[in-house]
User: Fold this.
Amino acid sequence: IQLPTPSTPIHSATVSAPTNIACIKYWGKASSHYNTPINDSLSLTLDQADLRAVTTASCCKCFTEDKLWLNGKEVQMNASTLKRFRACVDGIRALASDKVDDITHQIVVTRSEWETMPVHIASYNNFPTAAGLASSAAGYAALVASLVALYDAREEYPGQFSAIARQGSGSACRSLYGGFVAWRAGGEREDWSDSIAEPVVDEMHWEEIRAVILVVSNKEKETSSTKGMETSVTTSRLLEYRAKHVVPQRMKEIEKAIQEKDFESFGKVTMMDSNQFHATCLDTYPPIFYMNDVSKSVVTMVHVYNEWAEEIRAAYTFDAGPNAVLYTLEKYQVELLALVLRYYPEVGEGYVNNSELRKEAMEFALEAGLVEAVEKRCRVRDIGDVKMVYCTKGGPGPQTLGDQCSLFEFV
Ligand code: DP6
Assistant:
């Protein structure tokens, strides 16, 4: 191995990036080459204090080839991962600036010189990849953000970085911003440069929004999003109808609800859109099942809860897996968590990521009428049906971390 020397130093940057959970789902590609969607989508970026990917990007003339480590293990990239990885690295590197020394103000690396240096990327999630919690969104957002920091890259138009992240994984483009984020499908321009994420409101606008995530055990192997979408696009007429006639109206409705902090409308649209996404999965031939019996029991519990409350206090949404994400408001979070803990018993220590909220929920006295209503329609699930519960909220986009955070200490 060639080691770095004073004339071939290592340049590096470390960032953390968030996951996001869609309220209006992205399902179906218009172009698989550009990785663009058939409809707009909208999500909430989650707090990195609870769920995050941390990535260090480094480069040096002394490196011999590009390399990638995930959670400490080197990854041998297959053709599909390599295409995604290259789109991100080459895309951001093309927007690089000269690197100027802080003290001497001399150019130490010219824009074009970056291309002569292979990159080493190390990435780490603080949550299990297998839990199916949008790890690709956080991962590719962190990859892009770390490269932006490394190369001090500049956008030529707003949203260009998100257009690059989208080529890593579609949902990743929305993780480049905080708060509620829309991904505009685009398609007016031939190169799809208009398929970009756009912030709707930042995380401060509707601070009261909370998310309670139920990690549902999933023993069967699920269909990957990419593969699932491909089959849905070619076989589901419902998906075609949804993209053309349903989503445009829903995007307007949900953006208005968010602007006005109207949880009733927000929650209803979110639940209906999750249901329609899973209906398109069932309409796919052969059908795809992402929700399982535990997921369906969460749906019932939420509807019983809302009916009892005579308002929408919680709204579920499910991605390409059985995990339930429940959106609620700060004032109902403990009540909702108490309900969750009653019907999905704890498996052991660390079942709820936030011990303070857990304590409050354990001590919370659910109203008799609610317990009665739920008991009529729901049964207490077996221990282990839900593996873990994350309580979290909205948060900002990627953050640059100091040099002392480099992950290369660990690989
Ligand atoms: C159901 O972004 O993982 O979570 O672009 O093929 O990498 P690729 O797909 P991906 O799909 C996410 C699908 C979803 C809905 C959503 O996040 O909008």
In short: The chain has two domains: 11-202+405-409, 209-393. The chain has ten helices and 18 strands. The radius of gyration is 22 Å.
